[in-house]
Amino acid sequence: MVSNQKKTIAIIAGEASGDILGAGLIRALRKRYPQARFVGIGGDEMIAEGFHSLVPMERLSVMGLVEVLGRIRELFRIRARLLDYFFTTPPDVVIGIDSPDFTLGIERRCREFGIPSVHYVSPSVWAWRQKRIFKIAKSVDLMLTLFPFEARFYEEHNVPVAFVGHPLADRIDLEPGTASARASLGLEPEKPVLAILPGSRSGEVERLGALFLEAARWLQARRSDVQLVIPCVNREREKQVSELVASLEVSLPLTLVRGRSREVMAASDVVLLASGTATLEAMLLKKPMVVGYRLSNFSYKVLSRLVSVPWVALPNLLAQKALVPELLQDEATPEKLGEAVLERLENDQERSRLQAAFLELHQTLRQGADERAASAISALMESRN
């Protein structure tokens, strides 16, 4: 239903992934409210859709405790400026996209002022620090979740929620183009491919890069026909991986690719990767995977006491069972990682079983997230009228 009302819709996105979500949401909301005005904080993707950003989004894109402490006064000033703007010219709704440490506080203040508030992308409250749910309940009129198990958690705690699906599931085809990806990357079409993704940040590559390379060397000694490919998010990570490869005592035939991680995974038979969003992408591409991760012993002990779910990989969380192997901390050895990869390279029956399970999960998440999110937000605004 199209409305001629001149709605003002406030959106706050703090990083690149939120900017992409926000742009899709603006497109879907504009279909319902062609005369709507969109304002808040967003990046280039949202601005290209006609969004007015009061502050450059990169001022919110802060990673790490030290960096946050160094910018805390600026972040407080930005928060105060936004609230002053929203209280002076109240929007019809305020939508915080991810970045919960920044956005939830603003959402709470707006809600107390009488402005409906929405949070898009649930924090991992279902996994650890579950008491945060009480703060969230006071902050939002509606939570939009990407995964169904998140929505169930909010329903159990009587927080209004809508499962909208995952935008990646909408964008990635149900059938992966393995042959075309191999051709594009210049890989031999008939030989098996292992994609290796030790992470996108320097610290992750430092912790996992050598481990994954040793696992690849273990595999290469047993299957010399396997093509090894590592996508590197930028020039710095490419240099870091190159230095790790050079430090190995035995040369390892590797193809390094800058960017194009989705294409590299699409070209693969198996993916060896760190836990994180990449596991979701590998699942949507229907790729058997082996998940490995290491932290400092102290961090692992602390987190293992806080985390209340039995898995870390998203395919396992979505299926609520161990679809893919998770080799964490002391279990993450070159031999065990290599053995798990080899098993998935050579067991055709297991590969077929996994691909069928991944297809089912893909269809569960393929809900038209932009439209569903816009529909839920529209219903909230109309109910407040």
UniProtKB/TrEMBL annotation:
Pathway: Bacterial outer membrane biogenesis; LPS lipid A biosynthesis. Keywords: Glycosyltransferase, Lipid A biosynthesis, Lipid biosynthesis, Lipid metabolism, Transferase. The gene is lpxB. Belongs to the LpxB family. GO terms for molecular function: lipid-A-disaccharide synthase activity. It is an enzyme of class 2 (transferase). Condensation of UDP-2,3-diacylglucosamine and 2,3-diacylglucosamine-1-phosphate to form lipid A disaccharide, a precursor of lipid A, a phosphorylated glycolipid that anchors the lipopolysaccharide to the outer membrane of the cell. It comes from Marinobacter daepoensis. Its EC number is 2.4.1.182. This is Lipid-A-disaccharide synthase. It catalyses: a lipid X + a UDP-2-N,3-O-bis[(3R)-3-hydroxyacyl]-alpha-D-glucosamine = a lipid A disaccharide + UDP + H(+).
